[in-house]
Amino acid sequence: GQNIDQPTEMTATEGAIVQINCTYQTSGFNGLFWYQQHAGEAPTFLSYNVLDGLEEKGRFSSFLSRSKGYSYLLLKELQMKDSASYLCAVKAAGNKLTFGGGTRVLVKP
Amino acid sequence: SAVISQKPSRDICQRGTSLTIQCQVDSQVTMMFWYRQQPGQSLTLIATANQGSEATYESGFVIDKFPISRPNLTFSTLTVSNMSPEDSSIYLCSVEGQGYTDTQYFGPGTRLTVL
User: Fold this and answer.
1) Is the Cβ pair B42, A101 closer than 8 Å?
2) Residue of A nearest to B41 (CA)
C-alpha cells in the first residue's frame, strides 16, 4: 500500500524559513514531487527528487533520503504570496502519483 | 512546461445527469492522468488514460461511472456519469512525457457542483 504523511498546517512569519516534512511508505519509488496549490487553483510543480540529496531552486529547496523514506521542502525568505497548500507526491509504478494530504502554510506579516 | 487546457472550467449539474470534461495539451504527451480533488482534500488518481487502449482505473473507480477517451496524444475526455452530490469535486488532468519526462503538469481543473 501507499502511505504519505505530512503535517496538516504550519504558520510562519514573513521573511522567515519554514520546513515541510514528508514521510512515505510506498510499493515502488520513481521519484518524489512537491507541488504548490493556491486556493481554487491547480497544483503548480515546484520540484522533483529522484536521487538522495538537496535540490535548490531559488527560495525553494527540496531534500530526499530514500533510505529513510523522507523528504522536506524548505521555503526561505517567506513572502505573503507563499501562503498556499504544499503537496508531497510519490511516483510509483506506472508513473502514477500518490499524494499526501497536503500542508497548508499560512504566512503572517 | 506543458500548456494544458480543460473545458468546462466549472459547471453546476443536476443529479442523475452526466458531464464530459475535456483536456487538451499543446504538444504530444505519452501519459495523461485524471485526478479528483474533493473539497478540502488532496488529489486522488482516478485513472490513467492510455492512447489507443482502454484506461486503467484505480481502486474505487470504475469505467461505467468514469468513462475515459484518449483518441490521440494531445487530447482526452473524462465523463462523470449519473452524477450525485458526492461527485462534487475538482477534476484535473495531468500530463507527462514527450519532452516533459519525469515531471507531471496539471491542467487548471474543472470545478463540478452537483445539486
Assistant:
1) yes
2) A101
| CA dihedral sign of residues B4, B5, B10, B16 | negative
Could B43 and A99 be called an inter-chain contact, meaning their C-beta atoms sit closer than 8 Å?
yes
Q: pLDDT tens digit string along B63-91? A: 999 999 999 999 999 999 999 999 999 99
Interatomic CA distance for residues B104 and B94, integer angstroms: 6
Per the CB < 8 A criterion, the answer to whether B57 and B66 are in contact is yes
Between chains, do B104 and A44 touch, taking CB under 8 Å as contact? no
Q: Please determine, for residue B94, whether its predicted confidence score (pLDDT) is greater than 60.
A: yes
A 10 A CB-CB count for B79 gives 15
Report CA Rg, chain A.
13
Q: Which phi and psi angles does A95 have, rounded to 5°?
A: 60, 20
Give residue A1's pLDDT band: very low, low, confident or very high (50, 70, 90): low
pLDDT digits (tens, 9 = 90+) for B1-56: 778 999 999 999 999 999 999 999 998 888 899 999 998 888 999 999 988 888 99
Q: Count of A–B CB contacts within 8 Å?
A: 51
